[in-house]
Amino acid sequence: MDKHTIEKNEEIEIDLSRLFGAVLNKAWLVVLVAVLCAGLAFLGTFFLIAPKYRSSAMFYVHNSALPAGSAALSLSSSDISASRGLVKTYIVILDTRETLLDVIDYAGVDRTDKELRKMIEAEAVDNTEIFRVSVTSTDALEAQKLANAIAHILPKRISSIVEGTSAKVVDAAVVASRPSSPSYFKNTVLGFVIGFAVTVAVIALRALLDTAVRTQEDIEQVCAHPVLAVIPDMETADEDGYFYGYGSKNTTAAPKDRKRALVGADISFCAAEAYKLLRTKLQYSFADKENCRIIGISSALTGEGKSLTAVNLAYTLSQLDKRVLLIDCDMRCPSLESKLPVAGAPGLSGFLSGQNSLRDCVQLCGLKDHEKAFHVIAAGQNPPNPVELLSSARTARLLEKLRGVYDYVILDLPPVGKVSDALAVANETDGILLVVRQHDGNRVALSAAVRQFEFVGAHLLGVVYNCAGENSGSYRGKQRS
Question: Residue 370's pLDDT band (boundaries 50, 70, 90)?
């Protein structure tokens, strides 16, 4: 196998198109959450946040000790630079406790110096010798009173502290006509953006952490082997037997005489055609092989439908007048006897342990009188050492003997992600099919299963994408393995 194939089977890439598709599929949810967050932000701003009003007074900083009447003299650039530097000094003077208490007394408001300090903002205007003092309060009149009180007190405090300098009021404070905060528009937009971003992030994270197989592209992303067939969803209708219909519309329970209707005319047209397509592709895969083909069918996890795939493939091949034998190699958790009109024992475990002859174990399975029959070897009694039995020389001799009798031998193998039984017999097959079920299949487990089969040198034919909803949608069947 080439290096590219190995690397593809070993890595699960972060597919940006997958993340984008996940977000796009939930676009309605993203928009809905964003709009709800915008609405909550607007309502929260309206009902929970008290509006605040701002009033400002502006001062001009003068550092020249020129006497009155010398206004005709122009100020030097050094005077202007010094004035700009004094702005920070004046702001510090404003922030002192004594200045703040004088402002409170003059304004006649019930505030502490700590409260007033939090209400005041002072800054230079565009890096000039002009600075602005703003007072913010929930009461517009209070803000205006405090700002004008500062305009009255601060110049006097400055003159008494810093000799040769002064601060003159350029613009007195007025009562604000509208709130300065909060901004309903800004908070609403911010709520929309936060809701949008968080929802997109959550959806993308879930898609990133979601390793389930949702589409055929998910299989192709982690497995370099082809998807040979897409089997439509087939739903279990009652507990005693199986009746299959395509999609979510056909959910009527099966009549009593059709409890064991697994294959043939009793499955949907789409399912039958899918298995015929699988049969055709397998024939092309073995075009150069004239003798018997031994095909192992496994899965990464339990419940992906490998046993039903094995049964339906055996039936489909038998309809071409081929001699077909289906062997249940899952001796830990056998299931063929619950899906076919065959006995569970004697079976494979009895033959491999030397308790039964091959003739005793082989059963003819004719589902209907007018349909071709195929042979079945059930799993038999549960042995304590199934992996040892499957890896024994007796298993190899059995398969070699069956090559001279049948055209196809289908091995229903255990899931490779749970036990190593399937790996023990994988080299005795001519090819392995991996069954992956939509939604229940796992990309990480699939990648690991492929690596395990490749490690033992098994020939992987491809993947059967099982239980796929219409258009690979979200409809999930209850098909059992």
Answer: low
H/E element holding 29? helix 27-48
User: Band of the pLDDT at 265, cuts 50, 70, 90?
Assistant: low
Separation of alpha carbons 433 and 382, rounded Å: 24
Characterize 253-262 residue by residue with b for buried, 16 or more Cβ atoms within 10 angstroms of its Cβ, and e for exposed.
ebeeeebbbb
What gap in Å lies between CA 133 and CA 33, rounded to an integer?
A: 41
DSSP letter assigned to residue 390: H
Q: What is the 3-state secondary structure (H, E, C) of 419-457?
A: CCHHHHHHCCCCEEEEEEECCCCEHHHHHHHHHHHHHCC
- DSSP helix/strand/coil, 36: helix
> What integer pLDDT is reported at residue 474 of this predicted model?
36
Output 131 or 288, whichever has higher pLDDT.
Answer: 131
Residues 6+ apart with CB under 8 A from 207: 18, 19, 22, 23
Between 16 and 316, residue with greater pLDDT? 316
Q: Give the span between the Cα atoms of 423 and 198, in whole angstroms.
A: 45
Q: Kindly give the pairing relationship between strand 293-299 and strand 130-137.
A: unpaired
- The per-residue pLDDT for 414 is 92
Judge residue 134's burial from the number of C-beta atoms within 10 Å of its C-beta, 0-12 exposed, 13-18 middle, 19 or more buried. buried
- With beta carbons less than 8 A apart as the criterion, state whether 336 and 414 touch: no
- Taking every pair of C-alpha atoms in the chain, what is the biggest distance, in angstroms? 131
What's the pLDDT band for 402 if we cut at 50, 70, 90?
very high
The DSSP code for 164 is T
Instruction: Give residue 86's pLDDT.
Output: 76
Q: What is the pLDDT of residue 340?
A: 83
Question: Which pairs with CB-CB distance under 8 Å and at least 24 residues apart come from 307-310?
Answer: 307/335, 307/336, 307/339, 307/412, 307/480, 307/481, 308/234, 308/262, 308/339, 308/466, 308/479, 308/480, 308/481, 309/231, 309/433, 309/435, 309/464, 309/466, 310/336, 310/410, 310/411, 310/412
- Compute the distance between CA of residue 424 and CA of residue 88 in angstroms, rounded to an integer: 84
- What are the angstrom distances between the C-alpha of 444 and each of 9, 115, 326? 10, 60, 29
Q: Is the peptide bond before 182 cis (omega within 30 degrees of 0)?
A: yes
In the 8-state DSSP scheme, what is residue 404?
T
Dist. CA 262–CA 258, nearest whole Å: 9
Are the CB atoms for 196 and 34 separated by under 8 Å?
A: yes
**3-class state of residue 7 by DSSP:** helix
Between CA 363 and CA 343 the distance in angstroms is 8
